[in-house]
Amino acid sequence: MARSKEFEVNEVLDKAMKIFWEQGYEKTSMSDLVEHMGIHRRSIYDTFDDKHSLFLQAVDRYIGKINATLLAEVKASKTAVEAVHKIFGFMISESEDVPSGCLIVNAAVELAPRDTDVDTKSIELFTSAEQMFEQIILWGQRDGEFSSDRDAKEMAEYLHNISVGIRAMARTSIDKEKLNRIVNVSMKLLEH
Asked: Can you spell out the DSSP letters for 57-117?
């Protein structure tokens, strides 16, 4: 008779996501996962197959949470300027319950050159982020908040590139004021 799972999959997946986010894929051992997830090694293998599969599922979980959060931030914004500020504010802000930076940016830097699954997921999320920025820029151009002199798609690619840099820099002890200055310069480029 098979034993029933004594844990909630998304709950332990969140714990795996956090340790991968903090330490990276290579540095996170199965022993780390057992300890942080609070389940037995056999349960990890039975539920998630292997470390790589667990990592990919943690990445998917992360993508779902981040997309939901950013979508809520944009929908709650009254203006395109406010939406961009909220997105960057989310990326810069520090929260005690999550590691700094971005799991996808970290994974792309660490693994994408040699892991096609991570490369594909990274590109998909990057494309989605650029599309979100493009829609916000078009909104701002339509409402006169942003200059229409620049192509919205190109500016979206630029903003996404800035956001990747900010998320990478947020992993360091760099002053958050500097990150906010970078955002403000980017906003000036949109507005003029």
From this structure: HHHHHHHHHHHHHHHHHHHT-SSHHHHHHHHHHHHH---TTS-SS-HHHHHHHHHTTT-HH
